[in-house]
Amino acid sequence: MKILILDSQFLTRSGLIHLLTSYSDRIAIYEADSFAVAQNYLSSGEHYDLIFTELDLPDVDHRDVVQKIYQHGADSHIVLFTWRQHSADIRHALVQGARSYLCKGAVAEQMKLAIHGLLQGREYLPEDTMYSSSSNSARNDIERHLSPRQQEIMQLLAQGLSNKEIANILGITEGTIRVHLSAIFKAIKVSNRTEATLWYLLRQNKLSA
């Protein structure tokens, strides 16, 4: 997997690289601190599976960043990795071709969940914003039954991960995962992981009822 990170801040790029490589050692990462440098990469003919980009760059207007990237890498998964949270800015970038949005101000666990999913080829849009594809009623149903931590565990469980893998991602013990799963099964009235996963996916509109 090839990843391009477009961000003017060295520490931001370094932090993202550290997080990405903690999940996989089978990735090649390229850095660009300006759009001019990124353009050299993009025009070389190389394909990048993921392109993380800040919208605020020193040499291009934020309204044109995604459009210019998309012109060179339409097949790449463009991820907005930015401090910007204004709905008009994000919506504009998504219309131009971005497929995921991860705010730099996200909490650590949300960041980990997002990065893990992106490396697995899944798109990411925060569930607590208007950009999520899940319906409000489905979200409300999940929130009514599960705590935020339990929702995180269910999200990873639905990806087919083991208790050990979930524990590693969330930074807690396998025993704690088992306790949470027991509480989840009781809360949603199911008896095993398969039933819990089906319950969750149905409410995420990822399976037909």
TrEMBL record:
GO biological process: phosphorelay signal transduction system; regulation of DNA-templated transcription
Gene3D superfamilies: 3.40.50.2300, Winged helix-like DNA-binding domain superfamily/Winged helix DNA-binding domain
Location of the HTH luxR-type domain: 139-204
SMART domains the record matches: HTH_LUXR, REC
InterPro entries: CheY-like_superfamily (IPR011006), EvgA-like (IPR051015), Sig_transdc_resp-reg_C-effctor (IPR016032), Sig_transdc_resp-reg_receiver (IPR001789), Tscrpt_reg_LuxR_C (IPR000792), WH-like_DNA-bd_sf (IPR036388)
Domain Response regulatory: 2-119
PROSITE patterns: HTH_LUXR_2, RESPONSE_REGULATORY
Keywords, alphabetical: DNA-binding
Keyword DNA-binding listed: yes
Pfam family, any one: Response_reg
GO molecular function terms noted in the UniProt entry: DNA binding
Protein name (record): DNA-binding response regulator
